[in-house]
Design goal:
The complex is a heterotrimer of chains A (796), B (289) and C (195). Chain A is an alpha/beta fold and 796 residues long. Among the domains of chain A are: 211 residues, 3-Layer(aba) Sandwich (Dimethylsulfoxide Reductase, domain 2), CATH 3.40.228.10; 99 residues, Rossmann fold (3-Layer(aba) Sandwich), CATH 3.40.50.740; 151 residues, Beta Barrel (Barwin-like endoglucanases). Chain A contains 21 helices and 31 strands. In chain A, the strands form 11 sheets. Chain A has a 6-stranded mixed beta barrel with strand order 24-30-25-27-26-31. In chain A, strands 3-2-1-8-9 form a 5-stranded parallel sheet, with helices on both faces. In chain A, helix 4 packs antiparallel against helix 7 and helix 14 packs across helix 16. The radius of gyration of chain A is 26 Å and the shape is globular. Chain B has 8 helices and 11 strands. In chain B, the strands form 4 sheets. In chain B, strands 9-2-11-10 form a 4-stranded mixed sheet. Chain B is globular, with a radius of gyration of 19 Å. The N and C termini of chain B lie far apart (40 Å). By secondary structure, chain C is of the alpha+beta class. Chain C has 3 helices and 8 strands, in the order βββαββαββαβ. Classes of the chains: A alpha/beta (796), B alpha+beta (289), C alpha+beta (195). The interface between B and C is large, with 54 and 40 residues.
């Protein structure tokens, strides 16, 4: 989230699209009801299903799953055509004025630089025109045909309301009503917030869905302000924190990057990672990269990380190739992985195409599952009848299942999706012999370290030199680890640091994650603070927990003021320039003494200091979002460019050769399948909780009345839903809430498939819904396309 | 239960007045249907706090589960999909459970002394140790709420978390409710809060928005804010104009003063049963949607 | 545990913040007379957060016992933390059912192994588990570790092992897992966050 949960109450318009906050985040959704009650805010919901969010919305419109960019592209077209943009904001705080490489172009659904062989783009032309001074060129008048504003206008001019409606199935008048509502916030004193979740990410165009809304929010001047922003609701309690700790193959804590084979030396690596400013006077915060990196290496390797050995640069591995879940299970499927660990992760249920995942797991030599509950993954080898029909005797994987504790049984911190880190205290011991996750991974490591110390082996140096200063080595405490993450000085008496501004690249500071620097300051554990006072009334509660970065609650909050430093809306003042410094109701996201006339722009993490309407090469599938059909689509063509079969689906999406035959076609699978969560359940956990099993006991699928009539189905019938990858059997719920869509003159039916069942639990056992889903993901994030694929449905 | 009678306003099948009733604040729960997201947090919190667990059922083709109230489910969500005249879909969700009537049909029809009590704060409570399991409270309830337990053959329903209220806490469902669709406070404060909600709903186009606090049962201590207050039956058959059934009125007006503690329970229930047949059916017709 | 005094500045529920519910029907001396005794009397209260979605609602955990040496604590109830600025005491159906997650009869209590081709779990000790897992790892690492690529560049990676990290674990768990994994040269890492 750029903003945070409570801040939603400051919105005038709330758009829930690509999410279902009322069901998936009910307690966060309360701030929508507060905005409605106290600001007379309006709630708009756009969703293929009339959800429980829609049930309390002021306005609802249906949309065919997988067509959000068509809808949002149409909104952009509406905003620029009808002059519903906040001009001063767009002019100063976005790259609308920037000149783009004249060789950049877009034709027939493809951006310049496409290579069909590798299904990827050479992004060289997706760049700014640079002047002799190294800075990007701009045209303040925004008339140059190569300026971002003109390119954007041209790109989205194709998204007419009529075409949008033909693609999305949303009736034109409903689409235009929503455009008008959104456009009403293009003024300084009205703000829209966007709340999204997996409904946008789980598509082959997932990242571009979100970028498209970010562009809309920039055009409206809704980023950086109270009640605005682009807010990822996110799934797990610490999905934000674990993302920040960056347990991704290619990353290091705090969104740093693991070296690759292109980094011939430490110097090369730092040069590649440390960006240069693209406009004068800009903060370009990533220029501090060497300080963050060296401090991390000091936290990890302590004394062994010295200036002479490049702070242990060679102790780190260099990664080759992708390491997302789809790529990992593909490699496992190919027999390239021998050992595998699942720490509180149930991939057999959570990853696409269960059959492929199951086959892959059976190729492992050993599998270690660390979990408080018996996951389906831990029993992938066991025959559970039709629900998991395997032959144990044929599966040679040795499986270890290690019982871990739950949240109430350890101390530690979670970071919520509003980036607020909160400390939890242990209430009781875990059951039986269960152990905490920290102890489990530490003991495995210490056992290996002991073996390497005794026997030697392949490159033992990093194993033996890893800094392990914990008072009980087998059980590093959460407080010790939190202090290490936050960072300390290595000179003097080694005091905790109070913020990342103190980090050094000379080895005199250690910090496990620069973004969390200051969380455990000289004043103590700030994540444990429990003062909920809110003097501004905006809900900022600056003394509750600790928000990264620097306890800032609203990111880019410099943009809450006009260029002169006055709040766009004084009644929702986040920060302001008081004549000598930035002050206000939040930690200013700006150098405190940066005078407005210095034109230091708000988007301090960007080299150019402004928000990007033109996305450069940051996403793999284009600098502007473009509508592509889902990989399994009921349509024969992409109506945006019907004559080019190559751009029917996202041309930059990775497809594994072996999966080509696994995609289904509409002749056999005519309906749009979409998977989702129910408010009564949490992923694959709460089927083990009796209360939740009572509230929603049995697997079901939802279909509209028209499809039910066609198929002769009624409420309570048992049905089989199948895709080209397998089938599930469930109870039918026939509902008015899923409407048949009129898409380009033909009827498209949707089958809704909740995900929560499996072959273990207190709820009635059911089929794993990811049996049905396709093994293809977003071009950039590789999040699987769970929200739009093809199925058939028949009476069982 | 001697001490408790201090703030018991009324007891079932008891003619002697309660001793020296203190005047405590009348409490109420206000359920704002326009804010309800049907998430069932109220059901979960109710089960958890009251240590009751219904059986794990089946999906019958709707989101409602458990499908009905029972001794193990003192509150359930009911869902209705309604298409309005202008073609819009409304998904109406109503938390069903005891209304804690000011004039409680259950208490009035209960032949077991002290099995049903009404506290001076408005809560109607079942005292299972005095319950004979005759089921007349079910017949007497205009909202069809109490349920007999198949295990101990006693009647159960929502207590309004009287054990929590007694210590200054709100009912478990009201505390949990994520959107504030369930509010709790003095009846006066709830009536005031409802006014504001109704004004807001009218501004948003719900011209028939209103409060559900039916006079036929003397008003209730669980009230609803209904966007369509003119047609409460849209909300999964909420009674339009609930009344105490004729039999209860009979029992209350004629029979009860004639009966004393001395009259054997068997005789009493026999007479009661004899009188019920006709009026009861008529009453059901009246309250169904 | 650090507990500061509640500081309510604005109450989201209009107008109810100041009134004490204690005056609404019972006085404390009547509590004893309740049909259901108030079950939290003398229970220990611990501040925590819900482990489900990333709203991360504050919860209060109530456990039996006063943490005396000879008493084993048991969680008997959870409810929303009214001080937490985000949830203000509320919980959703998942959070309100947390007790049954903690007390689930399906919780795992000890380490187990399923041997190749076997059809059953076998209970083992923690030490056996760590020893056997480490033996597998070391054998694999020593065989498949890549020190240099074809150009002689040091790459120091262990490509044949993978790790999927939880998005429900504490920051501290994620951090120490990351530190250990890189120390071993692991590059095949992903988290639930991606999905």
């Amino acid at each position: 989230m750029t903003n945070h949960w409570v801040d939603i109450k400051n919105a005038d318009l709330i758009l829930i699209m690509g999410g279902n906050a009322a069901e998936a985040h009910p307690c966060g959704f309360k701030w929508v009801t507060e905005a409605k009650a106290h600001r007379k805010a309006k709630l708009v919901v756009v969703d293929p299903r009339f959800t429980r969010s829609a049930a309390v919305a002021d306005y609802y419109a249906p949309i065919r799953s997988g067509t959000d960019i068509a809808f949002l592209g149409g909104v952009i077209n509406y905003l620029v055509t009808n002059d519903k943009i906040l001009h001063e904001y767009v002019q100063a705080y976005t790259n609308a004025t920037f000149l783009v490489n004249p060789d950049f172009n877009f034709a027939e659904g493809m951006f310049s630089g496409y290579d069909a062989e590798t299904r990827s783009y050479d992004t060289a032309t997706w760049s700014y025109q640079l002047g002799a001074d190294g800075y990007a060129k701009i045209d303040e008048t925004m008339q140059d045909p190569n300026c971002v504003m003109q390119l954007m206008k041209k790109h989205f001019s194709r998204y007419t309301p009529e075409l949008v409606s033909r693609i999305t199935g949303t009736p034109v008048e409903q689409f235009l009503t929503i455009c008008e509502m959104i456009g009403s916030t293009a003024v300084p004193d009205r703000v829209m917030t966007s709340m999204y979740a997996l409904g946008w990410t789980q598509h082959s165009v997932g990242s571009e869905n979100i970028r498209c809304m970010a562009m809309i929010q920039l055009l409206l001047g809704n980023i950086g302000v109270a009640g605005g922003g682009i807010n990822a609701l996110r799934g797990h309690c610490n999905v934000q924190g674990i993302t920040d700790m960056c347990l991704f193959g290619e990353s290091l804590p705090g969104y740093m990057k693991l070296p690759t084979e292109s980094d011939a030396s430490f110097g090369d690596y730092l040069t590649r990672m440390t960006p240069k400013p693209l406009r004068p006077n800009q903060i370009n915060y990533w220029s501090n990269y060497p300080k963050f990196f060296v401090s991390l290496m000091k936290a990890w390797y302590g004394e062994a990380a010295t200036k002479d050995n490049n702070f242990g640069f060679d102790l780190l591995p260099k990664i080759k190739g992708p390491s997302d879940a789809l790529a990992i299970f593909e490699r496992m499927y190919q027999g390239e992985i021998n050992g595998f660990f699942c720490q509180g992760y149930n991939p057999l249920a959570a990853v696409a195409n269960k059959k492929k995942v199951s086959t892959a797991l059976a190729k492992l030599k050993y599998l270690v599952v660390i979990d408080p509950l018996p996951t389906e993954t831990s029993e992938f080898w066991k025959n559970h009848g039709v629900l998991n029909d395997v032959d144990p005797a044929a599966i040679q994987t040795e499986v270890f299942r290690l019982s871990s504790t739950l949240f109430a049984e350890e101390d530690g911190s979670y970071t919520n999706s509003g980036r607020v880190i909160q400390w939890l205290w242990k209430a009781v011991d875990g059951p039986g012999e269960s152990k905490g996750d920290v102890e489990i991974v530490s003991r495995i490591y210490l056992k290996l370290r002991e073996m390497y110390a005794k026997e030697g082996g392949a490159y033992p140096d990093p194993v033996l030199q890893l800094s392990w200063p914990y008072s009980i080595p087998e059980q590093p405490s959460s407080t010790e680890l939190a202090r290490e993450i936050s960072g300390r000085a290595l000179t003097g008496d080694g005091e905790q640091l109070s913020g990342f501004g103190q980090l050094k690249d000379d080895g005199s500071t250690a910090c496990g994650n620069w973004l969390y620097c200051g969380m455990w300051s000289p004043a103590g554990n700030l994540a444990a603070r429990r003062d909920n006072s809110d003097p501004s009334g905006l809900g900022q509660t600056l003394n509750w927990g600790f928000a990264w970065p620097a306890n800032r609650r609203i990111l880019y909050n410099r943009a809450s003021c006009d260029v002169a430093g006055n709040p766009w809306d004084p009644s929702r003042m986040v920060i302001k320039w008081n004549g000598s410094k930035w002050v206000g109701n939040d930690i200013p996201d700006m150098r405190l003494n940066a005078r407005p006339e210095e034109m230091v722009m708000p988007f301090i993490m960007h080299q150019e200091g402004v928000g990007r309407l033109f996305g450069l090469n940051k996403l793999k599938d284009g600098p502007f979002p473009e509508h592509y059909e889902p990989f399994e689509s009921p349509l024969a063509k992409n109506l945006m460019h019907p004559d080019n079969p190559e751009s029917k689906c996202n041309p930059a999406v990775r497809i594994f050769m072996g999966d080509l035959d696994s995609f289904g076609k509409p002749d056999k699978f005519p309906y749009v399948g979409t998977t989702y969560r129910l408010t009564e359940h949490y992923h694959f956990w709460t089927k083990h909780s009796r209360i939740n099993a009572i509230l929603q006991p049995e697997q079901f699928v939802e279909i509209g009345e028209e499809l039910a009539k066609e198929k002769g189905l009624k409420d309570g019938d048992k049905v089989i839903v199948s895709s080209n990858r397998g089938h599930v059997k469930a109870v039918a719920v026939v509902t008015k809430r899923i409407k048949t869509m009129d898409v380009d003159g033909r009827k498209v039916h949707t089958v809704g498939i909740p995900i929560h069942w499996g072959f273990m639990g207190l709820a009635k056992n059911g089929y794993i819904t990811n049996t049905l889903t396709p093994y293809v993901g977003d071009a950039t994030a590789q999040t699987p396309e769970f929200k739009a694929f093809l199925v058939n449905i028949e009476k069982a | 239960m001697k001490e408790q009678s201090l703030n018991i306003e009324r007891r079932s099948a008891t003619t002697t007045p309660s001793p020296g009733v203190r005047h405590t604040v009348e409490v109420a729960k206000l359920i704002d249907i326009s804010k309800c997201i049907g998430c069932k947090a109220c059901q979960a919190a109710c089960m958890e706090w009251n240590d009751i667990r219904d059986k794990i059922g089946t999906c019958e083709g709707t989101y409602a589960n458990p499908a009905d109230l029972s001794a193990g489910s003192w509150t359930v969500m009911r869902y209705a999909e309604v298409e309005t005249k202008d073609g819009r879909l409304e998904w109406l969700m109503r938390k069903d459970g005891c209304m804690h009537c000011a004039d409680p049909g259950c208490l009035k029809s209960c032949p077991a002394p002290g099995a049903i009590v009404q506290h001076s704060n408005g809560i109607v409570n079942f005292q299972q140790e005095n319950c004979t399991g005759c089921g007349y409270c079910i017949t007497g309830c205009p909202f069809n709420i109490p349920r007999l337990s198949p295990d101990d053959h006693k009647a159960y329903k929502c207590t309004l978390c009287s054990d929590r209220i007694a210590t200054g806490m709100e009912p478990a469902c009201a505390k949990a409710c994520p959107t504030g669709a369930i509010m709790f406070g003095s009846k006066k404060a709830m009536l005031h809060h409802a006014e504001g909600r109704i004004t807001d709903l009218k501004e948003r186009g719900y011209r028939q928005a209103g409060l559900y606090n039916p006079a036929g049962v003397g008003g209730t201590h669980v009230m609803y804010v209904l966007p369509h207050a003119d047609t409460p039956e849209l909300y999964s058959g909420l009674a339009k104009d609930p009344q105490l059934s004729t039999l209860v009125l009979f029992w209350k007006g004629i029979a009860k003063p004639l009966m004393g503690y001395s009259l054997g329970l068997a005789v009493l229930t026999g007479i009661f049963h004899y009188v019920t047949v006709g009026p009861n059916e008529a009453d059901e017709d009246e309250t169904e949607e | 545990m650090q507990v500061t005094r509640r500081q309510f500045c604005k109450i989201c529920a209009a107008g109810l913040g100041g009134s004490s519910l204690g005056v609404m029907g019972y006085s404390p001396d009547e509590v004893l007379a309740q049909a259901h005794a108030f079950k939290l009397s003398r229970a220990t209260e611990t501040r925590s957060n819900c482990p489900y979605c990333s709203v991360s609602c504050g919860v209060l955990i109530y456990s039996l016992g006063d943490n005396a040496k000879n008493a084993k604590s048991e969680i008997i109830h959870l409810e929303g933390d009214p001080d937490n600025p985000v949830n203000r005491g509320t919980l959703c159906p998942k959070g309100a059912g947390l007790l049954d997650m903690i007390q689930s009869p399906n919780r795992l209590n000890y380490p187990e192994v399923r041997e190749p081709g076997s059809n059953e779990w076998k209970r083992i000790s923690w030490d056996q588990a760590f020893t056997r897992i480490a033996a597998h790892m070391k054998a694999d690492r020593d065989t498949n570790f890549v020190t240099e690529n074809s150009t002689g560049l040091k790459v120091n990676r262990w490509p044949t092992v993978g790790f999927l990290a939880s998005s429900s674990a504490f920051n501290e768990v994620g951090y120490i897992s990351h530190k250990i994994l890189r120390g071993l040269g692991v590059v095949t890492i992903d988290t639930q966050a991606r999905i």
